[in-house]
């Protein structure tokens, strides 16, 4: 599927640098990342320890073992289709703007400003929602770790209030902002450390948990049990399977980070695509292993989902805690295992802020954001410092909705999956339609299969947009309504209306900066 070589002519000229110049941009960020570092950022944001742990309750409730075990590969196949298509486009246009820049170049002169405006705002808001979701899930995990460490839900343990949780969230974001203010060489080190931690953490937990467990699920349970026992009023197995896919699809997202890091990656026209594909591929393999390892320790689904258990209904935390408690008389080992996951989620949030800031830097460089002149400034370390702190501030503000209503917060976070995937699909759609005959591939390309894979990707995104907008509980009330279509629809209305009211008069799409 890959033709050509990495684009380096062997004379010491970086192909990514040269291609960036051809696209009309001067090099402002320090190009110091290897393909390993580029991969590490996307792999750390995908972070199977983060996504699976956070939404394991959803997987158990809607379908259980069979949906998680086989649904993982359904989501994986289509995610790889999206990733391959993005990698092909990334090879041709290796810029920090990524998706919105691709949309502009692939939609033609007439549609370029509108296409890049829509893609850019869905991308950046989706990324902010990802950071919000990741760091808030870490704050919630810390809440559970403290609860279990002080005796558990049934032993007088301390359950932090929603105000303490939001304070945790703010503190985590602050640390992430400080780390992302460091030179890219430091971020490269932390990115590789994060990738190694995620990889080793998965292998440790997938082996340790079922080994320590005194009671194990049978292979028949793990590979064939379909859980229809939910309190959601949903009994159709097809419907349940669809809802259960959310865990897998939520986990397998965020790999556009490799595209946003291309202006800091050596030979980015080849290494950027490699980062995208390898991050998805390795995540698929280790993620399935982690799912199997944990699910073999599941023996009582209703008990794990019970809000009155020691972990307050946090399924994976309850699994870890009870596994060690049943063998050793206490759950300390389980709490330590949760600490391994907490560090992985921390790194995930750190890498997410890195990706956010590069997107904000590029989008403001093209004048698309309010106060754009401020957000694309780089400091003496060649870091878009203002964009870093902007991203953290907005992510904190998005999390404040949790103080009013968790329903409202979930609606906000839903943009992290659907909104981001819409941004992924738009440039792919333009590539297989308006640019089908004019697209000039880079050194990484899919050859004659590019259009086919692209259509599979676009249709899958359209499918999950509908699937994940369906009601998740009946009867539907204001407290049980799935607000995903409200949140995504609201973003769509805001983006389109701002275009017609104002932006169409001044936003011309990506602009070059070679003369500035």
UniProtKB/TrEMBL annotation:
Subcellular localization, as worded in the UniProt entry: Membrane
Residue ranges of the TM segments: 35-58, 70-90, 136-156, 163-183, 189-209, 276-298, 328-349, 387-409, 415-434, 446-470, 482-501
Topology of the protein relative to the lipid bilayer: Multi-pass membrane protein
Stored InterPro entries: AA/rel_permease1, AA_permease
Gene Ontology MF annotations: gamma-aminobutyric acid transmembrane transporter activity; L-alanine transmembrane transporter activity; L-glutamate transmembrane transporter activity; L-lysine transmembrane transporter activity
Gene3D superfamilies, per the entry: Amino acid/polyamine transporter I
GO cellular component, one term: membrane
Keyword terms of this UniProt record: Amino-acid transport, Membrane, Transmembrane, Transmembrane helix, Transport
Family: Belongs to the amino acid-polyamine-organocation (APC) superfamily. Amino acid/choline transporter (ACT) (TC 2.A.3.4) family.
PANTHER family linked to this entry: AMINO-ACID PERMEASE BAT1
Record protein name field: Amino-acid permease BAT1 homolog
Gene field: LOC120251934
